[in-house]
Amino acid sequence: MIFRIIIHQKGGLGYSMQRYASLLKATLEQQAYEVALLGPRLYLSKSYNTKGVYKWLRYIDIYILFGIALWCKTTFTKEKVFYIVLDQALGLYVPFVKNKPHVIHCHDFIALKSTLGRYAKNQVGKTGKLYQNLIRKGFSQGKHFISISKHTQQELHQFLPKAPQTSAQIYNAVDEQFRPGNLATALKILEREVHTSLAGGFVLHVGGNTFYKNRVGVLQVFTAYKEKYGTPLKLVMIGSAPTVAMQAAKAHSGFSDDIYFLTKVTDQVLVNAYQAANVFLFPSLAEGFGYPIIEALACGCPVITTNTGPMTEVGGELSWYIPTAREFSSEEEWAQQVAEQVKEVIDLSPDALTQFKHKAKEHVANFRAETIGPQILNVYNKIGADYA
Q1: What is the per-residue DSSP string for 213-257?
Q2: Contact of 293 with 320, CB cutoff 8 Å
Q3: Nearest-CA neighbor of 70 among 25, 100, 48?
């Protein structure tokens, strides 16, 4: 059987989605299947400008021109092709493959839930609501789905008008490069990045600037910790460039000299950061999976994250869980409590830390490609058999 993975346009494939596409492609190629990526090409909107007329030209490229190309491929191809829709956000393409062997990978429904008013911090306009509604109508025509967490799977079932023929749940795989390493070496490399000593320890956060990542919350917790305990601990935040709100939180914290923002780091620096950190703080409000959680655990770094799915699925029984700020009378009160949790993890004894790392290694084995790949392939084979 021939496999075609339908992906986002060039430049529209984020870091996590790139890795997911690579996992699927590698899994199929290891079984000697013919596989290729299939996505929109930008003819009318080659400019990096995505505003004004260029925005609409990009829509023409992505949905009209590629839609015509996809219709031709699915209609006139005589070979038996299995279509893999990389992301349910590509739902507008599902009608072209709904009667062919296909599967739709579901990651998160945060954008769709935002249109329903589920997140006060992320208001969506009329065109955004229309767009998400079209995506929902599109993927709802699919018959076969794989969700990256039980949390995502439950939400998928809420959005579908009827039960799908296939609904599997398979976690994401953590990249092989995320493993424990030499602490002294990792610390030295990261110190070169931040141009200061981290001998007093540091809290790590990794993430982008989407509203649900709660990066300002990370800064609030760190400030509360420093005010209460006054240790030489520092904060290293890796990811997108800090927003205005983050810069303001840093400036007003009173500990701005202990806060470092790193952007566009190499994979090796990211791995070293996980290996050297005393604790990884990830107070995300929502996720589809939460790659950084499993990456940190894979590197032997203790994790503090939000006590809700899918974070609790990925973090398992060996992570430390915190409530969200909405469960408190103020964000300051929330930050104070989370700071106490940070102190507890920072103060772990050497024996407790060794025991944690041993359990983390066992837990992460369930998220390695050699475990996840065969699970995905097994679902593909079962779906393909239905079209034999």
Answers
A1: G-HHHHHHHHHHHHHHH--S-EEEEEESPPPHHHHHHHHHHS-GG
A2: no
A3: 100
99 lies in the same domain as 212 = no
pLDDT in tens, 232-280: 999 999 999 999 999 999 999 999 999 999 998 999 999 999 999 999 9
Three-point CA angle 204, 111, 161, nearest 5°: 130
- 147: tokens are 């969700």
Strand order in the sheet with 320-322: 259-262, 234-239, 202-207, 279-282, 303-306, 320-322
Indicate whether 128 and 166 sit together in one domain.
yes
Q: Which DSSP string corresponds to 346-359?
A: HT--HHHHHHHHHH
Q: Are 28 and 169 in a shared domain?
A: yes
Residue 21 CA: distances (Å) to CA of 316, 327, 333? 25, 37, 41
Shared domain for 138 and 284, answered yes or no, is no
Cα–Cα distance between 72 and 327 in angstroms, integer? Answer: 52
Report CA 305 to chain centroid distance, whole Å. 14
Write out pLDDT tens, residues 56-92: 888 899 999 999 999 999 999 888 999 999 999 999 9
pLDDT at site 1 = 83
List all residues 6 or more positions away from 32 whose beta carbon is below 8 Å from its beta carbon.
none
Q: Compute the C-alpha angle 283/172/184, nearest 5°.
A: 65
For residue 174, report the phi and psi dihedrals to the nearest 5 degrees: -85, 140
Angular region, 317: left φ>0, alpha ψ -120 to 50, beta rest = alpha
Say whether both 240 and 165 belong to one domain. Answer: no
Report the alpha-carbon distance of residue 103 to residue 101 in Å, rounded. 7
Whether residues 313 and 269 fall in one domain = yes
Helix (H) or strand (E) holding 151: helix 150-159
> What strand order describes the sheet that includes 144-147?
34-38, 2-6, 81-85, 102-106, 144-147, 166-169
Which among 268, 275, 280, 98 is positioned nearest to 179, based on CA atoms? 275
Structure tokens given for 246: 């983050």
Q: Which residues of the chain have pLDDT under 70?
A: 47-52
Any idea what the CATH number is for the domain that residue 277 is in? 3.40.50.2000
- 3-state SS class at 120: coil
